[in-house]
Give the backbone structure.
Amino acid sequence: MKNLFKLFSIIILIITSNSFAAEKVEYLKTDWSFKGLFGKFDRASLQRGYQVYTEVCASCHSMKYLSYRNLAEPGGPEFSEAQAKAIAASFEVTDGPNSDGEMFTRPGKLSDKFVMPYDNVKAAQAANGGAYPPDMSVLVKARGGGVDYIYSLLQGYEEAPSNISLDDGVYYNKYMYGNKIRMAAPLSDGLVEYGDGTNATVEQMSKDVTTFLMWSAEPHLESRHQMGFKAIVYLIILTVLVYFSMKRIWSRVESEV
Amino acid sequence: MSDHDYRPKSKVGQWFNDRLPLLTLANHLTDYPTPKNLNYWWTFGGILTFCLITQIVTGLTLAMHYIAHADMAFESVEHIMRDVNYGWLIRYIHANGASMFFLAVYIHIFRSLFYGSYKAPREIIWIIGIIIYLLMMAAAFMGYVLPWGQMSFWGATVITNLFSAIPLVGEGIVTWLWGGYSVDNPTLTRFFTLHYLIPFLILGLVVLHIWALHVPGNNNPVGIDIKKPSKDTVPFHPYIVIKDGFALLMFMIVFAFFVFYAPNILGHADNYIEANPMVTPAHIVPEWYLLPFYAILRSVPDKLLGVVAMLSAILILAVLPWLDTSKIRSAVFRPLYKQFYWILVADVLILGYVGAMPAEGLYLLIARVATAYYFLHFLVILPVLGFKEKTLPVPLSITEPVLGGSPNLAAARNKESKIE
């Protein structure tokens, strides 16, 4: 028997040591305001993040599940309704057909979905050397490392080590799976000019746009955290009450609960 | 039992009960004599009922907003998450509810293994339970396909392809299952239909499961037959109801933690990428609760034999009451079985772990050893143990070990220690 136990502890030891030995890239860390029991988005960061998205990412990456109205909804960047309307109106939306059977363009409305940079996947691929820039609506949830991964990736561009040869239009990124990425480094210091005077470093822009992407993937994150706290506190109180009721009821029989 | 003596007090009640004895049933359920020494491992039956009802209620609500179409399924899930009132809550409860359901069912099954609840006269309860478990796996697998993400699509492709291992007719069966020559819209719509149907089949089987349980009554940690009702039993209500309720609340706290603070931790990130038949994910892995069987499947080099091994791993449980030859139910009085039990638990956990890893090198070796041991446990160890094992003396009633005052037991224990 003892030998069997030894055997099993050895197996478990092998497995654990193996998983620790496995090569893992350490992502860059930053303090995200939306983590934790009471995590909330930093509004200013979300608004800046939207600016980075729309001025930089949106030229290739769509965000097809978001509507302009979302920008003014509680728990998000919370632009004023007038601001959100102005943002929407700055985009040309194809609508129709009209009574003549023709498609036409008009300024965007709050109810419109985010306008896509390309008409379809093929057009996106044709414009990007065969690579499809993924839709960003739920991108943060679609990557194993989540926000830390995206945040690191945006800052992970480096000169390729000499033993790695890169094809044309392929770049080296130390956080990308396989280290080869077909997107050129999208950010550079001072690329956007923040309205609130924040210094637009690559690090700052990465943080802002990643925060924005977290919100776009999980627009109800704030109400989820708020409700979760209430629900769990409620459950704990109820559990304690039920525990004492149980003790009381079971005191009638000479048995342990 | 006092079931037959029961008569409702009111005239209307009597009139109704004579025509449809629902009140007799209600009376039976509240008075049902339950062993008073049931520990918290016994509360998972109630928890599982809660899980099933939660899945049905949230599932119905989701089905009102979900669109079962290959071009629209992924988008409709995002619609639920963003625009349906509390849609995110309903979907996260449903998705994490599946994991909670399996967590509870594994505890329930392993409780039964420890205390020998599958043994005579409870074989039918056990077999119905195994059928429920099989249906749960089918429902969970098809449910995972519905969001039409990458893991949905490729998981469905891998699992349905298993049927192609069947000689001669395999390929035909796969085409028939798919409704075409690959996983596509016809596959999605039929999976949705079946995913909607299976929970109600499970519900029916749960009724049978409980009915079959109420014939012999509950097993208990001591594993002995008890007189019912007697001083060894308590009525189901209020004693077991409040205890089950307390355990359920504890369970719900864990459940709530996942739903509100880690809703995606048990899922795979790739399932937030819309299904794409042209791009295969780097690693195709099923949900965590299927991993041990996935490991068994991959540990056999031959495809057909792998499928056979995987199915046997589940079906072997159905004949467990006849593989376990020991007359003693509870592992409390089976010192050797108790140790093998924990080795089996470790073995299944190891299988689950290697099931999540790539099937190569050391992982594959471990998977093979663990698979072999899994079958060894059921096919060799259990039958032999029943004959070879020297069991501890079993008390005559529940009250005896609780009060701890039987001279016979003390004498027996003395004898034991002398032999050692």
About this structure: The longest strand of chain A covers residues 92-95.
